[in-house]
Specification:
Layout lengths: L1 H36 E9 L5 E6 L2 E2 L3 E3 L18 E6 L9 E7 L13 E5 L5 E5 L4 E5 L77
Parallel strand pairs: 4-6
Antiparallel strand pairs: 1-2, 1-5, 2-3, 2-4, 5-6, 7-8, 8-9
Length: 221
């Protein structure tokens, strides 16, 4: 009789036990997927296209995956991640092979520390040491360029300076305009020399203005 009762109980409980086992397997699978959804790693390789990276996290390495940029629409921004740069891996597909994964870059680390510790300073530092920075409290914009600088402006350009302006160039500088170039200031210095003789300058002998003067470069007396 006891064996018969035990057999009946097993038969009654068997569907529930199977379902509990299925739920246990599903829970374990969800736990593994959740662990793989967000991981911290670093860029181990950059694809030759410049649009994909591999990210190493623990002993695992992702396949080549996309990485986040600041903007990727009609306005776009491009800055390829560096090998060794820290990254957060977001597995939006919750899979195991990393094919549905993207890398969120831009975390400071020991390999690439922050270029400034001043919260009032906005800095962009380039691999060759060139720096573009702006201090929000001191109101100072600084461009420290180690190489060449090229500015192409399709239409017109206007530069208004409140007080004084100074431009120091290590080698040569060239300004080319298709139209008129106007420079206005209380005092204009060229090579730190003496005053410029203009077309309004009168001849010491005849007392009349000099006729032979530049028609393309003009300056006030």
């Amino acid at each position: 009789m006891r064996q018969l009762i035990e057999s009946l109980v097993r038969d009654m409980l068997n569907p529930y036990l199977e379902r509990m086992e299925e739920l246990s397997d599903e829970t374990e699978d969800l736990r593994r997927r959740q662990q793989n959804m967000i991981r911290l790693g670093y860029v181990s390789e950059v694809h030759e296209s410049g649009f994909l990276v591999r990210v190493k996290h623990g002993e695992l390495v992702t396949p080549f995956i996309r990485w986040f940029a600041n903007a990727a629409g009609e306005t776009s921004d491009y800055r390829c991640p560096s090998v060794g740069e820290q990254a957060v891996i977001l597995n939006y597909g919750a899979g195991h092979n990393g094919t549905q994964t993207v890398a969120l870059i831009g975390l400071f680390s020991d390999n690439f520390p922050a270029p400034s510790t001043d919260p009032n300073e906005i800095v962009r530092c380039y691999p060759d040491g060139s720096i573009v920075s702006y201090h929000a409290v001191n109101h100072v914009l600084k461009l420290d360029i180690k190489g060449d600088a090229i500015i192409d402006i399709e239409k017109s350009a206007t530069v208004n300076v409140g007080t004084s302006a100074s431009i120091d160039v290590g080698e040569s500088a060239s300004i080319k305009a298709g139209g008129e170039v106007t420079v206005d200031g209380s005092k204009i210095k060229l090579n730190g020399g003496v005053g410029v003789v203009t077309g309004a300058h009168k001849c010491m002998i005849t007392g009349t203005p000099h006729a032979d003067c530049s028609s393309t470069v003009t300056a006030a007396q």
